[in-house]
Specification:
2 domains; single chain; rod-shaped; 6 helices; mainly alpha; 112 residues; DNA polymerase, domain 1; two-stranded parallel sheet
Length: 112
């Protein structure tokens, strides 16, 4: 086998390997094609708007990028909130984390 044929086979093999690694990853991110629950929750939040920290479930809170299990539990335990910045004043999370998520959350006032 000459050098040119060897390089052609090598490049074709590398291209196939890349294609087989990229396509499944792309499918996993697509909620319409049966992607993971986290991907579909994230897509759902982007369509429905900000998450209300007074009424959201733990799963809905965890769909916000930057909120995990610990912060979701703390948010729920410290309810109700009259404003979203109370996440910092009540000590639920540090200012840096709040600054990253504040555009994705709201605190609607609870009805009496």
């Amino acid at each position: 086998m000459n050098f040119r044929n060897h390089m052609t086979r090598l490049l074709c093999g590398a291209s196939l390997a890349l294609a087989f690694s990229v396509v499944p990853a792309t499918w996993a991110l697509s909620p319409a094609l049966g992607g993971g629950q986290a991907a579909s929750m994230s897509a759902m939040n982007s369509r429905t708007g900000p998450v209300d920290i007074n009424t959201a479930s733990a799963d809905q809170l965890k769909a916000v990028k930057g909120i995990g299990d610990v912060y979701a539990k703390r948010i729920i335990a410290s309810r109700p909130y009259s404003s979203k910045d109370q996440l910092v004043t009540k000590g639920v999370m540090p200012q840096g984390v709040y600054d990253k998520i504040k555009g994705q959350i709201v605190a609607h006032r609870m009805k009496k």
